[in-house]
Amino acid sequence: MTASDKHILLLAGTFEARRLASEILQRFPSFRLTPSFAGVVKELPDLGCPIRVGGFGGSEGLEDFCREEAVSLIIDATHPFAVQMSDNAAQAASILDLRLLRLERPAWQPGPDDNWQRVPSMNEAVLALPQDARAFLTVGRKEIGKFLQRTDIFALVRMIEPPEQYLPEHWKLILQRPAQSTAEEADLLNQHGITHVVAKNGGGERSYAKITAARELGLTVVMIDRPFPPSLGKPVAGIEEAMQELNEILGG
Ligand code: NAP
After folding, report:
1. Does the structure show a pLDDT above 80 at 5?
2. Quick check: CB of 41 below 6 Å from ligand 1?
3. What is the pLDDT of residues 77-131, one digit of tens each?
4. pLDDT in tens, 6-44
5. 52, exposed or middle or buried, with CB in 10 Å at 0-12, 13-18, 19+?
6. Which of left, alpha, beta for 149 (phi over 0: left; psi -120 to 50: alpha)?
7. How far apart are the first and last CA of the chain?
8. Taking Cα atoms as reference points, which of 152, 197, 151, 145 lies closest to residue 166?
9. Is 34 in the pocket of ligand 1 (CB under 6 A)?
């Protein structure tokens, strides 16, 4: 097999996936790389190579794609809460006997100045908010529906694409990516008199400023624990580790 026969399917949707794509293109220019996006977010990055967009049609659709496109390796760099895609990747890799790397950025850990209320699921997060809370909900458009029953609270809702449901009139929706500085996030929390931040424990740096802002302001963070990843595949914690594995597997 020559280097040009090597085809890496990169399941994207995170900042780390974008960084990994650029590292792979730089260090292994003769490999074929296909970053794949779910297509939930309309604005897609220019990664310097052709991308594919949209679901595969379950694990069987993914298997078909891998066969037809002669994929040699799958890198699952999806968000830690994107469980369905990760399960599909594990299943397809197992059936086709393909190597699978899972880029798992470490979960955030509370420090002594953090005031976290950890919950195991989104449903528990809904119940964890006290009556009349002023909550900053950063749970994504897929999960926001679960909070709509809490008409007793005020919620500031931030997401990238608009939700499918109408939000209560007294809530506030902002369509934005997370701010990158603690000061900006603290300003936002102050402006809306927020008492609770609700977040998924996604890890990484890109959405961490809200957690440091909550710490500075002494607010409670309702932190949703991440689901268990599939047991198949090799977990790698960061870009460097992923690149080392790629070197070993593909002999780049
Ligand atoms: P999910 O529940 O695991 O996936 C739902 C379906 O979307 C999958 O079964 C698959 O459809 C399709 N899909 C997901 N990721 C894909 C990818 N990279 N390429 C092609 N198809 C993909 O995922 P989700 O929670 O809806 O998240 C969707 C995307 O947003 C993911 O790529 C994830 O990395 C990103 N994201 C998610 C979160 C989050 O909190 N969940 C946060 C930030 C970014 P088929 O079954 O038809 O193949």
Report:
1. no
2. no
3. 999 999 999 999 999 999 999 999 999 999 999 999 999 999 999 999 999 999 9
4. 999 999 999 999 999 999 999 999 999 999 999 999 999
5. middle
6. alpha
7. 12
8. 145
9. no
Instruction: Read off the tokens for 99.
Output: 């190597």
* Torsional sign, CA 171, 145, 198, 76: negative
Proportion of the chain above pLDDT 90, given as a percent: 94
| 212, 196 contact by CB (below 8 A) | no
**Residues 221, 193: contact at Cβ < 8 Å?**
no
Whether ligand 1 lies within 6 angstroms of the CB of 142 is answered as: yes
Q: Can you tell me the mean pLDDT for 171-188? A: 98
Tens digits of per-residue pLDDT, 120-135?
999 999 999 999 999 9
Dihedral over alpha carbons 98, 239, 185, 152 (to 10 degrees): 20
Taking 90 as the threshold, does the pLDDT of residue 64 lie above it? yes
Ligand 1 binding pocket includes 51 (Cβ within 6 Å): no
Which of 60, 63, 75, 85 to mutate to test ligand 1, by most ligand atoms within 8 A of the CB atom?
85
pTM above 0.70, yes or no: yes
